[in-house]
Design the sequence.
C-alpha cells in the first residue's frame, strides 16, 4: 500500500534525474513513467504546473501490489459472472493505474463519488472487496457506510454521481472545511461517455460558479459502451473545463505515478479553496463495457493489441526491475497473494445467503410507512400462494 507524499523524506534515489514537458508524442499528456518503464523525474504540464512523486522503494512496491491485487480480484468477479454467480459485472481491466493512482492520492478526510466501475478506488479506501459483489449478486444494495469509508455508494445512473458530488462539495465549503492543509476535498469519477450527459455538464456549472472543492476525474477509456470518443467530442475532454471557468489537465491514465501526482495536486488545490478542476485520465478499457457487452462488434483487435503494449501493470513492473527495486521473489509473492485473495473472495461470494424476499422493504424508509406495510403484506401473501413455499 502506497502512502507516500511528494516532498517527504527518505526516498528512493534510483529515479532518473530527468524532466520534460508533457509526454513523448503528446505534449499535453502528463506522464512520469513511459510504457517501457522509464522513469521521468518531473513533468511540466501545459499550465506550467510541475508534477513529480517522491516515493520510497517500499511505496513503489506497494503501488505495484495494489495494481496486481485489484486486477486479480476484478478478474475473479468476471469469472463469477460468467459462471452465473453474479448478475452482471463492470470490469476495470486496463484502468487499474488511473484508479489506484488517484485512490492513493486521496487523503483520509476526502470524499469520493464513484460510478459502478471504481473497484480499484474502493480497494484503496479500505472497503472489503466483497461489498460490490453483494450488490452485483443481488443479495444487498451495496452495504458499505459512505461516511465511514469516505466513499459513496456505486451509482448506476450515468453521470448522476457528479451532481451528488457537487452538492456535497458545496456543503463542505459552506461548512468552512476548506482553506487549510487538513481541509476536505471531493472527487467525482465518471467516464468519457458520461461527459456527454446533461448531469455532468450541470455539475460543471454549479461547481464552477460556487467554487466547490471538487475534482472531476474522467476515465477516458475511449468508448461509451460502443461509441468511440470521436463521436462524443471534437476537442480533448480536459479542454472542456475552460468553458466552465476552471482548469483541466490530461494525464496518462496507464501511468500510476502520474495519476497519483496529478490527482494529489488537484485535490490539494481544492482543499485550499482554489475551486474545482477536471482531470482526464487517458486510458483504455481492455475488456468489455460490462459482461453483457461484446466489444469485438465495434473495435478491432489491432487497437486492443496496441493498448496492451501500454499495460499499466507491465509498465510498473518494468520500472521496478530496471531500478532494481524488486526482484523475482517479490513478484512471485505478489502473484501468490493475489491468487490467495481471489480464491478467498470466490469462496465468500458462493457462501452468501440469499436474502429473505420481503427484506426488500426494510430500508425504503427509516421508519416505514402505511403504504409500505400494505405492499409488504400483499407481497407476503403472494409468496405464500406458492405450494411448498417457506414464506
Sequence:
Amino acid at each position: 500500500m502506497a502512502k507516500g507524499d511528494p516532498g517527504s523524506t527518505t526516498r528512493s534515489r534510483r529515479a532518473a534525474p530527468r524532466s520534460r514537458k508533457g509526454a513523448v508524442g503528446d505534449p499535453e499528456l502528463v506522464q512520469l513513467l513511459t510504457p517501457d518503464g522509464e522513469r521521468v523525474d518531473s513533468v511540466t504540464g501545459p499550465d506550467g504546473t510541475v508534477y513529480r512523486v517522491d516515493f520510497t522503494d517500499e511505496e513503489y512496491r506497494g503501488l505495484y501490489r495494489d495494481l496486481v491485487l485489484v486486477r486479480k480480484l476484478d478478474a475473479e468477479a468476471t469469472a463469477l459472472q460468467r459462471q452465473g454467480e453474479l448478475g452482471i459485472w463492470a470490469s476495470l481491466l486496463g484502468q487499474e493505474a488511473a484508479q489506484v493512482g488517484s485512490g492513493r492520492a486521496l487523503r483520509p478526510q476526502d470524499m469520493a463519488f464513484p460510478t459502478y466501475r471504481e473497484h480499484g478506488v474502493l480497494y484503496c479506501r479500505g472497503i472489503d472487496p466483497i461489498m460490490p459483489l453483494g450488490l452485483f449478486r443481488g443479495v444487498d444494495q451495496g452495504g458499505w457506510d459512505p461516511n465511514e469509508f469516505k466513499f459513496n455508494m456505486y451509482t448506476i445512473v450515468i453521470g448522476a454521481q457528479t451532481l451528488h458530488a457537487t452538492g456535497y462539495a458545496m456543503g463542505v465549503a459552506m461548512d468552512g472545511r476548506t482553506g487549510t492543509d487538513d481541509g476536505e476535498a471531493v472527487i467525482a469519477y465518471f467516464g468519457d461517455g458520461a461527459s456527454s450527459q446533461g448531469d455532468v455538464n450541470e455539475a460543471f456549472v454549479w461547481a464552477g460558479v460556487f467554487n466547490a472543492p471538487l475534482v472531476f476525474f474522467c476515465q477516458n477509456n475511449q468508448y461509451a459502451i460502443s461509441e468511440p470518443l470521436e463521436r462524443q467530442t471534437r476537442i480533448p475532454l480536459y479542454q472542456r473545463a475552460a468553458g466552465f471557468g476552471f482548469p483541466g489537465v490530461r494525464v496518462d491514465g496507464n501511468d500510476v505515478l502520474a495519476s497519483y501526482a496529478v490527482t494529489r495536486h488537484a485535490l490539494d488545490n481544492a482543499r485550499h479553496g482554489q475551486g474545482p478542476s477536471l482531470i482526464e485520465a487517458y486510458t483504455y478499457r481492455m475488456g468489455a463495457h460490462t459482461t453483457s457487452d461484446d466489444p469485438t462488434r465495434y473495435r478491432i483487435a489491432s487497437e486492443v493489441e496496441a493498448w496492451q503494449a501500454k499495460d499499466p501493470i507491465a509498465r510498473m513492473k518494468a520500472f521496478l526491475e530496471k531500478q532494481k527495486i524488486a526482484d523475482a521473489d517479490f513478484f512471485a509473492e505478489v502473484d501468490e497473494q493475489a491468487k490467495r485473495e481471489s480464491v478467498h473472495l470466490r469462496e465468500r461470494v458462493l457462501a452468501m445467503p440469499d436474502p429473505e424476499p420481503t427484506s426488500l422493504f426494510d430500508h425504503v424508509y427509516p421508519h416505514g410507512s402505511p403504504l409500505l406495510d400494505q405492499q409488504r403484506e400483499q407481497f407476503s401473501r403472494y409468496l405464500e400462494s406458492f405450494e411448498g413455499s417457506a414464506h
Observations:
- The chain has a mean pLDDT of 92.
- The chain is about 40% helix and 10% strand.
- The radius of gyration is 22 Å.
- The chain has two domains: 19-350, 357-391.
